Amino acid sequence: MTRLGALVTVSLLLFSPLAGDARADPQDVANDVSNQVMSPYCPGVTLHDCASGQASKMREQIVKWAEAGWSKERIMDRLEAEFGATIRATPPAEGAGILAWLLPALAVAFGALVGIVLVRRWNLRAAPASPATSAEVVSPEDRRRVSLELKRLRRET
């Protein structure tokens, strides 16, 4: 029973965004679109953040489309057809746009690899050489002196 409950919960969580889009509030759809679209009137700014009058008219048009039942994807496709692929705030995850997604991930992986290599080198450099055995460190003369000192100390106590 617990597994079935977990399966139902996971299914609801995974598929609820899909069901939510079908009856989403038009204002929410319009806000979502305007946050994912670059403004053609304010360079480098999303349509949501652009303060120009033309951007305001464009946001109103997006709200009208959403109220007419247009999906977010349909609105995005319409804007892309009208203004070109650069209207999207994020590059597509296909074709040349995939580089915009892969290069940062590759840079992070490369940086992690360099970090691991450097840490290993520093640890090897700082680590002492293999410990020597006592026969290598103590000469026969030193052994004799230590024995004599120990005998002398035992006699004194």
Keywords:
2 domains; 7 helices; mainly alpha; 157 residues; Helicase, Ruva Protein, domain 3
Task: Describe it.
- It is built from 7 helices and no strands.
- The model has no long low-confidence stretch (mean pLDDT 82).
- The chain has helices spanning 2-22, 26-35, 53-67, 72-83, 98-126, 134-137, 140-156.
- Helix content is 69%, strand content 0%.
- It has 2 domains: 2-90, Orthogonal Bundle (Helicase, Ruva Protein, domain 3), CATH 1.10.8.640; 98-156, no CATH class.
- The protein is rod-shaped and about 105 Å long.
- By secondary structure, the chain is mainly α.
Secondary structure topology:
Elements: H1 2-22, H2 26-35, H3 53-67, H4 72-83, H5 98-126, H6 134-137, H7 140-156
Helix pairs in contact: 2-3
Low-confidence regions: none
Instruction: Output the CATH homologous superfamily of the largest domain.
Output: Cytochrome C biogenesis protein
Basic shape: rod-shaped
Please describe the biggest sheet, giving its number of strands, its sense, and whether it closes into a barrel: none
* Order of helical and strand elements: HHHHHHH
CATH C-level class of the largest domain is Mainly Alpha
Task: Please state the second-level CATH architecture of the largest domain.
Answer: Orthogonal Bundle
Distance between the termini: 78 Å
**Using DSSP, what is the number of strands?**
0
Count, helices:
7
Number of domains: 2
Task: Please bin the fraction of helical residues.
Answer: 55-70%
Beta fraction = under 5%
Structural class: mainly alpha
Q: Mean pLDDT, rounded to whole units? A: 82
The CATH topology of the largest domain turns out to be: Helicase, Ruva Protein, domain 3
